[in-house]
Write a structure and sequence with these properties.
- It is a single chain.
- With about 450 residues, the protein is an alpha+beta fold.
- About 25% of the residues lie in helices and about 20% in strands.
- It has helices at about 15-30, 75-90, 115-120, 130-135, 140-145, 165-175, 180-190, 235, 245-255, 260-270, 330-345, and strands spanning about 35-45, 50-55, 70, 210-215, 220-225, 240, 285, 290-295, 295-305, 310-315, 320-325, 370-375, 375-385, 390-395, 400-405, 410, 420-425, 435-440, 440-445.
- Strands 12-13-14-15-16-17-18-19 form an eight-stranded antiparallel beta barrel.
- The chain is globular and about 60 Å long.
Length: about 450
């Protein structure tokens, strides 16, 4: 498919009519989705359109500027992966060697490789919640989580999104460099990219930062949300950045920057054959989600902290980079709508998420009933009032499941009747029995009989 974003001559720079229309759509959609503030950057490789709207903090009314840094949540992970890849490129470690060669706390899972940590194919559980993680150290955390008992599948055979894997990746960076993760990401990535460092937990940030927000659906009232990431989880989610910062990193991921050697950027984008991330993306590389659109493969990542939603997409073939930040939970829906608007305005479809495939009519799948676990998280599937299966996570309100013949499933919103992609079930190849379920990219292993 031809590259269709209109490029203005270098002398004229950004085409102002397009910028005004994108600004208008951002303003309107932010109001529609009750998002206090947001940023968007579209970098075509020749021109850069940067727009922002609203307030950074609903309590103080401080403006959301181009430089405002937003808690990135899991969009921190590609930065940590890039650090590990740079160390591998320098010969300080090998992606195919056991991670336990550098981290004694992983000796119980000696087959897990460094590369598998980055691609979420190590079979590790996601790890305990942040409040629990705040009470321990990274080595003790990893020794408790990375055990044969809690393994979800043999390393290198499947996909399960894991914060614990990135706690381990951050520990690798610290062990090999002798620096803290914060020091390493600042010195090796952020400052070379011209990004002013900002992290969750900074007592006195050196740049404007945005608060996350929650919206009370009954009253419409917007309240700031407190970030509660544990210090040891920093490599998995502690960065704050603006959309411009993310776009600069996106350029590095496409090989258009001196920061990452082209071979390193290409290796990060290489799809792992065992990585089947389900609803998260079409594939996964070393720290990067991969999205297939119009015969092209975009790379990027999504991130949600408390009350924020941030997204990065980069097309290595055309050089287009799109970065978005928003400071409310509703910003995820804003991002999806805005990506659609960019397609209408520019002719290039930006992959906001994984499109829903036509899987035919729903089928009954009574054999899915049971209890599944991912570390300390319990997924319980039981018959609902009408006999159809319903999913409850850690005792939360059950949501009806809609199952299909290909073993995929949707979650059904009881209030609206809307189906949202949920995940998929797995059969044990030896027995044919359903032994695992993957929900939103996280795999849980059956622990109790039907």
């Amino acid at each position: 498919m031809p590259y269709t974003i209109p490029i203005a001559p270098a002398a004229s720079r950004t085409p102002s009519p397009l910028r005004r229309e994108i600004q208008d759509r951002l303003d309107t959609l932010a109001r529609t989705h009750r998002v206090p503030g947001a940023q968007l950057v579209l970098d075509t490789g020749t021109d850069v359109i940067a727009v922002h709207t609203g307030t950074a903090d609903a309590t103080t009314g401080s403006p959301f500027t181009e430089d405002t840094a937003v808690p990135l949540g899991s969009l921190t992970k590609p930065f940590t992966a890039a650090l590990v890849m740079l160390l591998a490129d320098d010969g300080d470690l090998d992606l195919d060697e056991p991670a336990a060669a550098h981290l004694p706390e992983l000796t119980a899972v000696p087959e897990v490789t460094i590369g598998q940590l980055l691609s979420h194919t190590a079979g590790l559980p996601t790890g305990p919640d942040s409040d629990t993680a705040a009470t321990t150290t990274a080595p003790r955390y990893l020794a408790a989580v990375c055990t044969p008992r809690d393994a979800l599948f043999p390393p290198g055979t499947d996909f399960s999104y894991s914060n614990a894997g990135y706690v381990a990746a951050g520990r690798l960076v610290e062990t090999v460099t002798g620096m803290s993760w914060h020091e390493a990401v600042r010195a090796l990535l952020l400052e070379p990219l011209g990004i002013a460092p900002a992290f969750i937990g900074d007592p006195a940030p050196r740049r404007p930062v945005a608060a996350g927000h929650a919206v009370n659906s009954a009253t419409g009232q917007t309240r700031p949300a407190r970030q509660n990431l544990a210090p040891l989880e920093a490599p998995a989610g502690a960065l704050l950045a603006s959309a411009r910062d993310l776009a600069a990193f996106g350029n590095a991921l496409t090989g258009r920057s001196d920061l990452l050697p082209p071979a390193v950027a290409k290796e990060m984008r290489r799809p792992e054959t065992a990585a089947r991330p389900g609803t998260l993306a079409d594939g996964w590389g070393a720290g990067l989600a991969l999205y297939e659109r119009d015969a092209r493969v975009w790379c990027g990542h999504d991130g949600n902290a408390q009350g924020t939603s941030c997204h990065l997409r980069a097309d290595p073939e055309s050089g287009v980079v799109v970065a978005f930040t928003g400071n409310a939970g509703g910003a995820t829906a804003l991002w999806h709508d805005l990506a659609g608007e960019l397609g209408r305005l520019t002719g290039t479809r930006v992959p906001a998420g994984v499109p829903t495939a036509d899987r035919g009519r729903p089928v009954a799948l009574p054999e899915c009933v049971g209890t599944y676990r991912n570390g300390t998280t319990t997924y319980r599937i039981a018959p609902g009032p009408d006999g159809s299966p319903a999913l409850s996570v850690d005792g939360d309100l059950p949501l009806p499941l809609v199952c299909y013949a290909d073993l995929s499933c949707d979650l059904l919103d009881p209030g609206t009747g809307r189906r949202e992609p949920g995940g998929r079930f797995h059969r044990d190849p030896a027995t044919g029995r359903l032994d695992r379920v993957q929900i939103s990219g996280r795999t849980a292993r059956r622990t109790e009989p039907d």
